[in-house]
Amino acid sequence: MKLLTGGRVIEGKTLREGHALLFSDRVLSCIPEDAADGIDAERIHLNGEYVCPGLVDIHVHGARGIDIMDATDEAVDNLSLAMARNGTTAFAPASVTAPMPELEAAVEAVRRGMRRSLPGAALIGIHLEGPWIEPEMKGAHPPEWILAKPDAEWVAERADAIRILTYSPMLDPDHAFLRHLLELGIVPSLGHTTADFDAARSAIEAGARSITHLFNAQMGLHHRRPGMIGAAAVTEVMCELIADGHHIRSELFEPLCRLIGTDRLILITDAIRSAGLPDGEYDFAGGRVRVEDGLPVQPDGTIAGSSLALNRAVQNFRLATGRPLPEVIGMAARNPARLLGLTRKGSLDPGSDADIVCLDEDLNVAMTFVGGRRVV
User: Fold this and answer.
1) What is the span of the domain harbouring residue 256?
2) Residues 67, 77, 196, 270: which is the catalytic one?
3) Whole-number Cα distances in Å, 348 to 30, 283, 375
4) Which pLDDT does position 9 carry in this prediction?
């Protein structure tokens, strides 16, 4: 057993001062420090850091020179460790539209990673982003590999490794593909689409569970044509949000809290291999992108993912909104875990996996534990 003392424990939406966290591979209890005397455990003393549930990134392409499309065991291992350095303890790496053999290789690399111990964050399955999206809303995806007809059989053969699938509902007007995803236990997410308010709401009412990077690569909000954002506002769908201040102006973060609710917003990074590295040129989505001031762009100016770390996304959102830290941490931990049905992740409730991150006042990572094992 281990006992974290001297920190401030985030338990649900409550910040507990003067409490210690007792854990093994699972969280055992959060107890007053003056009640911890005599407990036979390895004591780890903090200097006032926040003791938080490990963060869960459900949409990240890569970091520190790695991309999941590299599709090697070494890439998976290194990405796992890169995630842990940012306070992420579970992640769903995202693919990009590519030739089917390359997508198959990425899925297989994720499948292998799910079956073995990793050096850092736990791998919870791939987020298949594309190829069933619309060219008009391709974002940084290469148009030559976009496919118009979702292949349910292809997905079914790889369902054990696919956790989320982003697709355009305009390619599935009768929702047959959506229903197939639900039967397979895959989370259907709407994105890279021209779907208007009615089409988006119809898909959500048919079972679509989330919206991929809200505002980006989808129809915008208009008072007579509310689009995807309007559909999000009038339903209970979960919504990904890239909180880097580039994809969405940070002044909109607080209004979004009131429109959507912090229990339905999920902070993601959408990071590419430039995350954690200096500005410069990097490979992404079959081409080259230029990173300036931390923002990756294609030669035509299209934003191509981000260089964001999830702990920085939490800090950006916290500073822009003034929301309490436990509430914002929940958007990067409890909410994504709930979307994916990860009942033992995203919280420090007793019985949860001991996925823990200790953050200083500026939310820099001091320590990361995955399943009770210190990895950073």
Assistant:
1) 54-346
2) 270
3) 8, 38, 18
4) 98
